[in-house]
Amino acid sequence: MTPVRFFLAVCAFFLSVASVHAQPASRPRKIIVIDGRFFHEMPVATDKITKMHLLTTPSGASAVGFELSEPLPDAALQYAVPAGQIPEGASLLAQYDEAKAQGRGTSLSFARKPLLEAGSRFPDFSATDIDGRTWTGADVAGKVMVLNLWFTGCGPCRAEMPELSRWKDEMPDVMFFSSTYEDAGRARPVLEKQGFNWIALVGDTQFREFVGPNGYPLTVVVDKEGIVAQVEYGTSPVQRAALKETIRSLR
């Protein structure tokens, strides 16, 4: 496979995995192999990925295998799918192990350079929500704030919205904001379809500067003193669990 075609395959895979939660139940879910375990969603941040393997059996079962820069944390193992639930799982695992042993695969780098650091003071801001209200730093003074940056074409952003909405239900004292650079007309259908209940900021020009080349979604947790407590680029079960724990600890 040429480098260009392999790159396109990588892009197609991530787009399809990103939209897995929006697929009808009859559609097959994508399969990820890491360290001999199966997942339906990348369990950890993508900046841990060092190499990728495209796996296919003669009868058409397929998966994508990843090698990571460090072993899977224990927190990720709870999201593993039993091998017995994966069609031709044994064959896919054998291919994965052989590819690793022979040093095959394509090296990848998703290294990130955060533009907002934990421990720094969150800047003052002025932003407008989808109903036209203006929000500023004064509105969140003395409160825990969580900011989730997204856009309508971001599959992982859309996929995590239902889970994030439950956080607001569980922690109503926290100021939860979502923010997109897109206008209300473009954002509203997605927000309504996903039932995303965070305060929806639109037409953003300030917060998007925190994303840079690191990609969406971006979630930021700010404590009651206005200090950034956690910054997460991308989304995965382990990242979301860590964010939720941080928010709870700051309340």
Main attributes of the structure:
7-stranded mixed β-sheet; 251 residues; Glutaredoxin
Short description:
The chain is of the alpha+beta class. The protein is built from six helices and twelve strands. The protein folds into two domains: 85 residues, no CATH class; 125 residues, Glutaredoxin (3-Layer(aba) Sandwich).
Report on the structure:
The chain has helices spanning 3-18, 74-77, 89-101, 155-170, 184-194, 237-250, and strands at residues 32-34, 37-39, 49-56, 62-68, 106-107, 126-129, 134-136, 145-149, 175-179, 199-202, 218-222, 228-233. It starts with a helix and ends with a helix. The strands form 2 sheets. A 7-stranded mixed sheet has the order 7-6-10-9-8-11-12, with helices on one face. Helix 1 (3-18) runs parallel beside helix 4. It has 2 domains: 23-107, no CATH class; 126-250, Glutaredoxin (3-Layer(aba) Sandwich). Strand 8 (145-149), helix 4 and strand 9 form a beta-alpha-beta unit. The longest helix has 16 residues, at 3-18. It is built from 6 helices and 12 strands. With 251 residues, it is α+β, with helices and mostly antiparallel strands.
Secondary-structure blueprint:
Blueprint: H1 3-18, E1 32-34, E2 37-39, E3 49-56, E4 62-68, H2 74-77, H3 89-101, E5 106-107, E6 126-129, E7 134-136, E8 145-149, H4 155-170, E9 175-179, H5 184-194, E10 199-202, E11 218-222, E12 228-233, H6 237-250
